[in-house]
Amino acid sequence: MVGFSLRLFKNFVLRDIRRNLVRTFLTVAGIALGVAVFLAISIANDTALARFRQTVAQVAGKANLELLPLSAGSMDEGLLEDLSFLGGVGVKWTSIIDEHLVVKGASGQDEVIQIIGIDMLADPEFKRYEESDDGGSGDAAASTSGDASGSASAVESSVFAPDSVLVGASLAERLHLKKGSTFTCLLPEGERILNVAGVMSKSGLGGAYSGNLIVADMPLAQVLTGLEGRVSRVDMIVGSGKENTGDSDSGSRSDDDQVYRAVSEKLRQIMPSDIMIGTPETRSNQAEKMTRSFEYNLLALTLIALMVGMFLIYNTMTITVLRRRPEIGVMRALGVKRSTILNMFLWETIFIGGLGTTCGVVLGGFLAQGALAAVAQTFQYFYFKVPLEKVSPAPEQYLLAAAIGMGLTLTAALPPLLESTTVAPAEATKRASFESRLRFMALPLFIMGLVCLALCYLSSLQGPVLDFPFFGYLAALLAIVGASLLMPLALSRLLPGLSRLLGHFMGAKGRVAASSLSGTLSRTAVACASLMIGIAMMISLAIMISSFRKTVTQWIDQSFQADLWMQSQARAAGNKGARLPESVVKECAAVKGVAAAEGFVDRRIIYEGMPVFLAAADFDVLAKYGNQLFLSGETNEAVCNRMSGSRAIISEPFAVRRKLKKGDVLKLDVGGVSETFTVEDIYYDYASDLGYIIIPRDVYKNLYKDSTVSNVAIYLQPGADLAAVKSELMSRLSGARLAINSTMELRKQAIVIFDRTFAITYALHTIAVIVSMLSVMNALFALTIESKREFAILRYLGAGRSQLAAIVYTQAAILATVGNIGGLGLGYILSLLLTHVINKQSFGWSVQYSIPYDFIVQSSILVVATAVASACLPARLAASTLAPAVIRDE
Amino acid sequence: MSKNIFVLRLISKVMSENMSRPTSMSDTRKRASKHSSLQCHAGIPRAVGGRGLSVYMNLAACFLLLFSAFASAPAAYGDQAPNTTVYRKALPGYKYKFPQDHFSHDDFKTEWWYYTGHLKARDGRRFGFELTFFRTGSDYKQGAEKVDAAKADSAKADIAKAGSSKPSPWKLDNFYLAHFAVTDESGKTFRYYEKLNRKGLKFADARQDAYFVHNEGWSVAKLGEKYVLKADARDYGIYLLLTPTKPPVVHGKNGVSQKASCAGCASHYYSMSRLQAEGLLFQKDKPIEVSGLAWMDHEFGSNQLTSEQTGWDWFSIQLAGNRELMLYVMRREDGSFEKQSSGTYVLPDGSSRHLDLADFKIEKVSTWTSPKTKGIYPMGWKISVPKEKLQLTLVPLLKDQELTTERSTGVSYWEGAVDVLEGAEAKPSGNGYVEMTGYSEKFSKKL
């Protein structure tokens, strides 16, 4: 049935497409944009994860078993003394430090890089890097004349020399480093000069973090990361390790497996329960889980763009089929089979869809880099610090995007295609028959639409499926379909009235414009619907972003009560592990004009398989000075005063995502000892979608044997001079490299971070606007071309060119207005779904709904204006209609 | 003395492990050759080009740190070199005190405890073994911690400290190396294994307060008046109880064993020349009851070799009649022996007599060309010490007891068990161990 005949295709399809070039172009562009956006986002998402996986693999090398600390970011090195049995069973192992470090960039700005600490005397399998060939850098003669003796120069740059590290190629390039040069890193206690013992080439470990790393011997790495006495994890190579090249026979392989199981089992027995016995993949999978909501939601947003694309193709194919009903009728009368007719339209769909998809895939490939740039900072700020400078697209993503493009195109074209086969030879010559049928159908469609909307409502009440708001997105889809189904009846009721109204103001022109639209209801309805969807997407995103922004702003204003915030510069520069000693809190409190200082510390832990921040706060100070907002509605003071012993407050995202409520019990496993905490209350928080657990500081100190603080909130006495206090703090603690910010500065920073996080959403928003504009133009074109006959008759009846043009412009305005009104309504529904269902279920954030009226007014004006402007081409077309030529057909 | 070589062995082993990675190797070579051509052009000699860094890591770790211990002048550091640790020199007048001198002497740069022996199973099978523990101090031992002295008040000081001030267990004061080799005379096999560690988390240690030296699971400990030796590896393991039958014998004169004429180009060196050994030898995890004789060497010093020395031959011989002989000769570049080469003859009652170079003569019986390194080694020796009326013939258990590194990284040497025949009629009269370095190429050339 899907046989292909080139001649038929040429005559029936290509010729028609050529005749309707602009419309075809618009349709293709619509599909292309949808596919492109989808592809770009999915490449960006996958790149982020792939880079993470790659980095994990590059650092892990052949390691196929790991000890991972769950309750803290690191583990006590004392635990490793129990690992001596490993050597006896042939397991190679080494401890690893895997942390952030802030270095001074070439132009003075601070940047965060990775520091890997390894035991340089461990098995060579753990040290897979090469020194890059820095002799080729041209100025060898000038730079190396000093080290005449080769061996001596090697000792100079030995990694065992004090403060000497290996640097990755990218870092070396950026900081202009070579063997023997020095650079500065920023520790909480101040700057420290490091010597370059060598530059690693990009293979093996040197290629991890895109070469933005330093590698140091264990003791130095511990000092630089403040992890004295601790390690980040333990890597083990059991048997021949990973990436087995197949040189070992299957026999030894199964021996390996046995040892592997036995070793894992033994480790499980001797390690405390907060040490996970996993593989490097375990960490990748955690990262995948952690970012899933963010990624899926981005992708789901792009599906809206695809949906508009679907409407474009539906619109186009419906109109094509409608327009060619007479032609089909003739062919049918001449004995052409239904299947042949279907075949022809199918090939047309495939042609347009294929063209659009192809363009989309190509465009998407280009857009991916931009999309990655837009999401990179979000990934890095909230989830993991892996350099994301270049996309690494996988062929499957192109294939998937192509399949989705083609699949959706065919799905969208299915109704008009089936319609084409129902054309009977006799009826076909009159188009009116179809129109009357649609009129007849309008009510049932309307009812179906209402059903869809009812289902949408029901669907919106459902919970997430596997942390993904499946029903939320289903509700959005139902809303779109439902609203579209309402369109025919709405139009058929609206347009006659409008016709009279316009007739009253504009005379015949107006009346004709509206009634002509009404006469071609099928096309008008589709055009309006696609316009509506495009606008709805634009509006709903705008509402979501603005609600979110407003909520966050308000939250910051309310809960950031301290006057000054202090942290180490290393932390300010992005090394979240940088700490200050507790004594600085007292020091701060002692400054004249300071009412109170509160030390806060947080660390990322793994709670039930997912990362979360565990934090400790001084609730005595918070009770007096803080202002957390709690879900229960209780005051900050009331809740904070109750906080002692094994009680915790948790942030809303954590509560929502882990399904926790007030009074529930949290189990924290620290060093094999299980501690339970009762959830005292849930507080609003927008700092991280991973969530926070906050416990009293004294309990934390006791539990984690950690008395450092991440930052200090400083509350001033009324009337104290902020600047004076700040400078007093600076001079008192000048030994430390501190960043002290006023609350005002902090708020600004928070908003900057927020905007950065939503950068990709803004981009999608822009795409939504473009796609909706395309659908407006597409609809208008369709209408004008299809109205040729009417125009010809009007012309015959004596209408002037300018009058015809005026009709077209009026029609454009009507379409745009109706679409816009529908879009606003649908957009409202979608925005509710986005903010209250989808976002809430994905990230756990309560968002206060807020409508950006100014944007809505502006965009509405823009839509109508664009519609009218884009009508200029069709208007000219209409004006140039020659009466006799067209009428002859009748 | 012979034990210096272990460091090099380990280095070469580590290097070979690194070099055997096919991709990095070829890359490395390509780059290295490219680099050298560039160098030639620029006319700048630089030994270390773009080679696999891990190779140089270990070079840096071992060669250079250790080489400074061997060479009469510490390896020349560039002007960037930090104030390197100054180690105590082995100077005349040293007074030995036991058991304390069994313990580690961390104030000397280099130190080793060296056990060799000949074991016999009940079924008559014979094995030679060698287990050596090696310690070498880091040049950066004291320079490792840089604490800013200027601290005005407590908070600043606290920030400066940031966390605990407990030193890291990975703090690199010493490199610990170990070597374990077994010669199976009946099976005609020779196997060797090695380890390289720092103190770390009980990875390795040589105690200064007891005679306990270990590297991972390999160890030697003094228990009462006896010594327990333990090592296990893939194909072989030993678990031996050693009982000394003579007191330690100190080599050299006035407490030093001179290796060259310069002051401090020496070591403190003593042996336990006759240890009764009994215990288990594991062959592929199968325990075999063994007994025999072992020899222990303990040597510590800081700068022993000069750059003109190309290698050495070293002999430890346990003769019938409860006598032992230790000899070493340092070979110079010009083919002569270093004047300071010497030996010790131990009498049945445990007393000993120093032998100068003039007191003994060593002749090679034949030569053996290593199929791997093409090095030509003496094979079989005739040793005479007229003063002591000794006339010995040494016959190697296996010819191929050479330790080589597959790739041309340089360090290859021969070390193995020998049978000893005595007198003109060549009567079997005990066993020995011989070490020969610098035959496949000049020993220090590759450094």
Describe this structure in words.
The complex is a heterodimer of chains A (890) and B (447). Chain A has 4 domains: 1-58 and 285-430, no CATH class; 65-138 and 152-278, no CATH class; 436-464 and 484-550 and 747-890, no CATH class; 581-735, no CATH class. Chain A has 30 helices and 20 strands. In chain A, strand 16 (665-670) and strand 17 (673-683) form a beta hairpin. With 890 residues, chain A is an alpha+beta fold. In chain A, strands 16-17-15-18-14-13-19-12-20 form a 9-stranded mixed β-sheet, sandwiched between helices. Chain B has 447 residues and is mainly β. In chain B, 14% of the residues lie in helices and 43% in strands. Chain B is built from 4 helices and 23 strands. In chain B, strands 1, 2, 3, 4, 5, 6, 7, 8, 9, 10, 11, 12 and 13 form a 13-stranded antiparallel β-sheet that branches. In chain B, strands 14, 15, 16, 17, 18, 19, 20, 21, 22 and 23 form a 10-stranded antiparallel β-sheet that branches. The longest helix of chain B has 21 residues, at 22-42. Chain B starts with a helix and ends in a 10-residue tail after the last strand. Mean pLDDT of chain B is 76; it is low at 1-83, 143-157, 159-164, 405-410 and 442-447. Chains A and B meet through helix 5, strand 7, helix 7 and helix 18 of A and helix 1, helix 2, helix 3 and helix 4 of B.
**Could you name the ranges of chain B where pLDDT drops below 50 across 5 or more consecutive residues?**
1-83, 143-157, 159-164, 405-410, 442-447
The overall number of domains of chain B is: 1
Query: What's the overall geometry of chain A?
Result: elongated
Q: Which fold name fills CATH's third level, the topology of chain B?
A: AttH-like fold
Can you tell me the number of structural domains of chain A? 4
Low-confidence stretches of chain A: 134-157, 244-251
Order of helices and strands of chain B: HHHEEHEEEEEEEEEEEEEEEEEEEEE
Work out the number of β strands of chain B. Answer: 23
Count of DSSP strands of chain A: 20
| Gross morphology of chain B | globular
Helix content estimate of chain A: 55-70%
